[in-house]
Specification:
The complex is a heterodimer. By secondary structure, chain A is mostly helical. Chain A has two domains: 76 residues, no CATH class; 59 residues, no CATH class. Chain A contains eight helices and no strands. The longest helix of chain A has 25 residues. Chain B is mostly helical. Chain B has one domain. The chains are: A mainly alpha, B mainly alpha. Chains A and B meet through α3, α7 and α8 of A and α2, α4 and α5 of B.
Chain lengths: 182, 145
């Protein structure tokens, strides 16, 4: 169990380094898809099937297709940079170090004295059976009912993103004179 | 549009199952993993797969951009409308307990269950149409040479 988790995490790290080192953008997009599938597997091991599901569908499915569509509009090769990689490397190392330092204060995985296991009391898992008329999926109950307001906001964010993409990218067929020259 | 016969045949075989799975994820989301977001993305990926293999005009005759545009807003409307309905029925905004009814409650979802069902349907409609629309927007542009 732990062995599989470590193997997946090692593969995740290897995939990330490969993506960063790659100049061929087509292959890099495929590797980001592999990265998403590995993340989904890892989340499944952590007993979060809802999140794993979303990661597999959005990260590996839609995101890969949209990246490939973008690639069809741009080039297939990344331009080689002439600038020295020292400063970006320093920034990445310091940021990564700070993030890892930040996680040191977090409770250990599965620690029963975690705040998340103590509050709210009674927990949503206990409350939802009665509140939801025995609806078994607590994640859905929390997302759609207890945090229904949040999810309404998220849905509006998705709508806003769609509107923004239409405004920026779509060409209006009814006004051909306004089209930018290709 | 691709001319590869194997890809075309396999795609035709796969798409019904992708759509069916999307509806399963949508309507079974209260019981197992899943829900509107995931179902919407899966449904959209079925449409996008069709568009990738058979070309943009083919998928746009199945799901016209004008309809997709309206569905984008309709999903949020279903969601917010559920909230307004709960206010009109005497509850708070998005407090689905106001949707409790006695019309064969064994067969038709009631109260919280009905609220979650409606809200997830709204999320599913919006996510499907936004993902499809983003694909249309990208695929509708010509390559910059």
């Amino acid at each position: 169990m732990n062995l599989i988790a470590f193997a997946i995490l090692a593969l995740l790290a290897a995939t990330a380094v490969t993506v960063a080192r790659m100049r061929d953008l087509w292959a890099a997009i495929m590797f980001t898809g592999i990265y998403s599938f590995l993340s989904a597997s890892w989340m499944l091991i952590l007993d979060a099937p809802d999140v794993a599901f979303t990661e597999a569908a959005v990260g590996a499915g839609i995101a890969t297709v949209l990246m490939l569509s973008t690639l069809a509009l741009t080039g297939k090769e990344e331009r080689a940079t002439t600038r020295s990689p020292l400063i970006p490397l320093l920034v990445v190392t310091v940021t990564g170090g700070a993030l890892i330092y930040g996680t040191l204060d977090m409770p250990h995985f599965g620690d029963p004295s975690d705040p998340i296991h103590l509050y709210p009391n009674p927990s949503f898992v206990e409350k939802s059976q009665e509140d939801m008329h025995g609806l078994p999926n607590v994640v859905t109950a929390i997302l759609a009912s207890y945090r229904g307001y949040d999810t309404l906001g998220e849905t509006t964010v998705v709508l806003t993103a769609g509107i923004a993409v239409i405004l920026i990218l779509r060409r209006d067929e009814s006004h051909p004179e306004q089209q930018e020259s290709p | 549009m691709t001319t590869f016969p194997i890809i075309r045949v396999v795609t035709k075989l796969l798409i019904p199952y992708i759509l069916l799975f999307a509806f399963y994820v949508q309507f079974h989301g209260d019981f197992g993993p899943g829900g509107g977001f995931q179902a919407g993305v899966i449904l959209a990926s079925g449409l996008i797969l069709y568009g990738l293999v058979f070309g943009l005009p083919a998928v746009q005759s199945v799901a016209p951009p004008r309809t997709i545009e309206r569905l984008m807003a309709l999903g949020v409307l279903i969601y917010a409308g559920t909230g307004i309905a709960t206010i009109l029925l005497g509850g708070k905004f998005l407090d689905y307990s106001a949707l409790e009814h006695n019309f064969y409650p064994h067969y038709f979802p009631s109260g919280q269950h009905l609220g979650i069902f409606l809200v997830e349907a709204g999320v599913g409609v919006t996510v499907t149409s936004v993902m499809t629309m983003i694909f249309y927007a990208f695929a509708g542009r010509n390559s910059v040479e």
